[in-house]
Amino acid sequence: MADLARELGVSTTTISRALSDHFSIGPAMKQKVQKLARKYNYQPNRMASALRKGKSKLLGIVVPYLEGRFFPTVVYGMEKAASKAGYNVIICQSHEDVVLERRNLDTLLSAQVAGVLVSMSRTTLDYKHFDKLRSRGMPLVFFDRVEEGDNVNAVVLDDREGGYISTRHLIGQGCRRIAHLAGPQHLNIYRNRRQGYLDALREAGLPEDENLVVYSDMLHAQGVDSLRQLMLLPNPPDAVFSAGDDSALGALQEARRQGLRVPEDVAITGFSNETFTLVTEPNLTSVDQRSEEMGQAAVRLLLELIDAEGGPFSPRKVSLRPELLVRQSSLREPELYAEAAEPALIVRRR
Amino acid sequence: MADLARELGVSTTTISRALSDHFSIGPAMKQKVQKLARKYNYQPNRMASALRKGKSKLLGIVVPYLEGRFFPTVVYGMEKAASKAGYNVIICQSHEDVVLERRNLDTLLSAQVAGVLVSMSRTTLDYKHFDKLRSRGMPLVFFDRVEEGDNVNAVVLDDREGGYISTRHLIGQGCRRIAHLAGPQHLNIYRNRRQGYLDALREAGLPEDENLVVYSDMLHAQGVDSLRQLMLLPNPPDAVFSAGDDSALGALQEARRQGLRVPEDVAITGFSNETFTLVTEPNLTSVDQRSEEMGQAAVRLLLELIDAEGGPFSPRKVSLRPELLVRQSSLREPELYAEAAEPALIVRRR
DNA sequence: TTGTATGCGTTATCAA
DNA sequence: TTGATAACGCATACAA
Prior knowledge:
41% helix; 6-stranded parallel β-sheet; Peripla_BP_I (chains A, B); transcription (chains A, B); LacI/GalR-like_sensor (chains A, B); transcription regulation (chains A, B); Rossmann fold; DNA-binding (chains A, B)
């Protein structure tokens, strides 16, 4: 900026204002400055700007991991919404470790981000580090895996609905003993998916059988084990609603290994619409989580928070509608669905 | 820092030095300062520090995309190596778009990163934006998809070797008409994989048949099309070496749709060791790209560059050894492999 | 071993 | 409409 000022014989103040399109600068001067800036390939120093203004144009993102399709897609949505507003993002992974999660937050704090987007790690059981962030006035929005309480801003999938429509679909396909592979119940997402499952059972007048609910960390291997365990029951299930795609896949593979036909002997559905659901044999029915919308909604909410500048802001929870993608692994009665030939039939889009 | 200085009755200079473990500060004072800093939960302002020192502790990463397993794993390796050296990373996606790639580099520049790690987008055909970076003295390391030329620092997989061992393996399994699904030849990785394929053919005395090489962008749908096209040849192939897993998967599915047995009628191998290779039926043979090591190596190289401070530094290329993971999709002669029962048999680890 | 003074690049304030 | 000046938080040359 000093160079430009010298060359044009004006002050850096004028340069600064011209570049940020300040109203007090005449159009002629603005033209000149901006042209010269382009010529010299001027790059603003965001650090200096952030230092002076006390706020940067950076948003921090903390995700449990990036593998798979869900989080990258969410991050993509975030990037889109952020860049539209002139922001950039820093991505950190907690690798499902609360210690790393805390360290990530410190990193973001000292990078002077304008706000933080968090999806909690699986091992996050207390929330002090988030309180610390808030006490420093750092705008904070959770997504997908959210902190409990009324005081949090969050964007979530309606996981209860996801569990509900999955289970209802299975019931509609004639299944009567529906098992559930459930995740850690301290995480909202898994608790709600289970609740939707129970709601659908109750609505249909089917009994709740605790033997049919298997709790695990939802990994592939645990899906294998869970299915094995379920099939040893005196009265084994005719369907499995898994709260995650990895364990659904494990269950699917183990079922076939046992010589069971899917979906005829046991119908299987997953959750997340991971890429591989279109690759398994049979293709895996799953719930799409509106990943990209989730990212965009989270950033929009965060930007509102930032613009409110710590002023009065009543916490908001945005809830997105899940979408059941019915595929072969649960389609016992294809004639019920005219479009059943489609590989990724959307049964419910409201 | 000012608060701490006041409370301890010393200058901010002392605080600054004590916190950065400067030799001129006595151990007693260091203790006191660091304790108080913890008590007040002091967070250094990295922007201010970066502004003053002219360099930050941030590394910029530009990847084409994050979906799948390869890039997240590379990034994980980068995070690990970076945090060991006190650095953090900013991740940007170019989404295979050179326009976005350029914008990302601008963003990173103005975020005052200490260095940049780039894997080029598929649409990057000229390299001016990288020259611009270099002309500003910004340390730059490429990984996986690298710029051509002697003047670049880069970490790559030995893709030629990957193509070579894949093809050799197929030859060893008795295949004689081996097709190749090739990617855009302006990208080093695809050019080299093809070269390895040709080398192995030549070594085995097999003819090169250009009809057996199909060029595409390596997407799933293009794998489907390519296989269809290949099977229409008067003399169709008995094996397919695909330079990517997505198109390998497409080929695999199309082959089975046509009623071909895999690997008996046509053996298929892919490249990248994506997660889904363990899910397909049959499981897909693929080349592992040492993703995590690649990330670590790239950061190590970048840090060396940064520490050299623009001084003399002869450009270096690090090349990693690929690993062929033989699975059912190419295993015609299992008796050749004692450990063939393993789902992910490592055939060649040198 | 500690302190004083200064500047990194930008922008807000106040004055012209 | 423009400019002079100070300040953001930190690190360092120099002095003590």
